[in-house]
Amino acid sequence: MDNINKEYLMQILNKKIRTDGRKFEDYRDIEIETDISKNAEGSAKVRIGETEVIVGVKLEVGTPYPDNPDEGTIIVGAEFLQMANPEFESGPPSVQSVELSRVVDRGIRESKAIDFKKLCIEEGKKVWLVLIDIYAINDDGNMQDAASLAALAALSNTKMPKYDKETEKVDYKERKGKLPLSKMPIECSLAKIGEHILVDPGLDEERLLDAKLTVASIGNKIHAMQKAGVGTLKVEEVETMLKLAIEKNKKALEKINKK
Q1: Domains along the chain?
Q2: Mean pLDDT of the chain
Q3: Tell me: the pLDDT tens digits for 103-144?
């Protein structure tokens, strides 16, 4: 069902159902595939319903930030390809793609999922930079959760390339050891439409939502949140969203752990 109007959507939601038959708290089916690229140090593809995102992880040697001379870092970028949605435009990153990459970055960074100190090669001079590239190839709503899940799946199977300190060269053909990833900050996005709270909004729901809250959590601990949309959220609505997010994030983690 494409481009439905809000009045019709509200009529459906008032009957406690959604246009695709899901309950308000239900995710669409989640599929995770890892090691999809032989050239990346880590890679994954995630499908949530018909939404599909691929992520590649590359490692480069760079200089550390002056205020963190003994720490590597992550750099997250996202590209919304036109084949994913005809509304996407080629050219510089869109506001939506920048926001998506920042929210993925924030979940990983704020939870300290990666031990940045273990990415240090030579303090003050050389560190590993973890480049996380996100590509949306089919947009049917909630690319945020798909991108976050794909990034974590790719990071979890990332292999460290060999670095020769004498020649200062990286051998990408010889990959040994895993990335120092110790935590999995799963993200869950929830939409508010009218008085209804929906988990995993589809494309039509995203277009008509009043507000959206994305929550990154590990177990019962919340590490990051991002609110979107022009609508407001009541305290009790936020509490409901947080409870749902924690519940759903635990189930999404099970999906990654099975890979």
Answers
A1: 6-257 (3.30.230.70)
A2: 94
A3: 999 999 999 999 999 999 999 999 999 999 999 999 999 999
Number of Cβ within a 10 Å radius of residue 169: 11
Is 171 in contact with 64 (CB distance < 8 Å)?
no
Q: How many residues does the chain have?
A: 259
Q: Rounded to an integer, what distance in angstroms lies between the CA atom of residue 246 and that of residue 94?
A: 29
- Identify the CA nearest to 59 among candidates 183, 140, 162: 162
> Does the predicted TM-score (pTM) go above 0.70?
yes
